[in-house]
Sequence to fold (397 residues):
Amino acid sequence: MALPSQPQIRADDALEQELATLIVEALRLEILPEHIDPSSALFGEGLGLDSIDMLEIALLVSKRYGVELRSENKAALASLRALANHIGQQRIR
Amino acid sequence: MSSGWRHQPERGSRGLMRLLVFITLWVGRPAARALLYPICSYFLLFSGGAQRTSRDYLRRILKRPPSWKDVFRHFHAFASTIHDRVYLLSGRHRYFDIRTEGASALHTILAQNRGCILLGSHLGSFEVLRAQGIFDHKLPITVIMHEATASNLNAVLHSLHPEIRDRIIPPGTADTMLAVKERLDRGEIVGILGDRLFNDEKGMTCEFLGTPRMFPEGPFLLAALLQVPIVLFFGLYQGGRQYDLYFEPLADSIHMNNARRSETLRPWVERYVSRLEHYCRLSPYNWFNFYDLADHARPPRPAV
Fold:
């Protein structure tokens, strides 16, 4: 018997949502996590975060996923999606 | 706007800069310094904005209406420190009479292999410390500094000594603070000028010489997040060949209440501002913020 079809959620989508919630809480942003466009820029124009906000995200990611973001991983900080992809590849927890 | 300073086209051409560097290095500092008089006179006559800011500041610090001589002296002190960068960044800092007070605050921290934030300002010169620290004491010191502030001058100066060029982190990029963290983690010193806001930086209004002025929260937030100490630094130009360097411990570690961040950081920012005022009174003509009038009324960053 065929199982009823479920909406497919990719692992990365779930991680993106989890990250969005973490970031909104930690930086006390006045936006709903689900309203963050995963492909738009976190820094500057996009979400309006500054360099210290980016550091806080890095500290958060290190604590939660054991992934160290270094200045040479700048590309991973481009958007929520880039960050989720990077963590997905590197995470140890 | 705090960014106004950077948007001011740097007066003087690269050719003039090269000439001044050439005279300084091949004829001597006194000959080149003679040129600072016509240069400052030109500024006195033609730079309305800078002159207004200077008068406004001098009136408050001197507690009397400033004369044109005061403004000239203010411009001349600024020109002198810019000019001395030629000597300092080319490794000729021993030419100067540099007095140092309180450096043990820094050495104690370095001896423990801890990184530290060296919090300075645009009062006087940071370059004396960079030169002496990097060339003589092999201090691992990097400064957050906007290279574009003086692209002409920096282009010329950095060709003199590349060793010092690599010791700059540009502010306001996504990875600025990650680069800062990496230096601090290695037990190095990161210099930050704490009296000017970069673009969208978080700031708070403090009373400065009787007028509200915006000061960045960033250095204090950084110290709290990374649990590193802050040492204050002031490098004051005293005329002639003399520079006086002052170090003071500000905070060993800052504990921040996450729910009330600005509130918990405020006493530290105010302590910095009060020390800044103290050193302004000590060397009034060293205040080199000429384009920040509008800072006084800058609104906080809008919520996202």
Notes: Chain B touches chain A through 22 residues (CB under 8 Å).
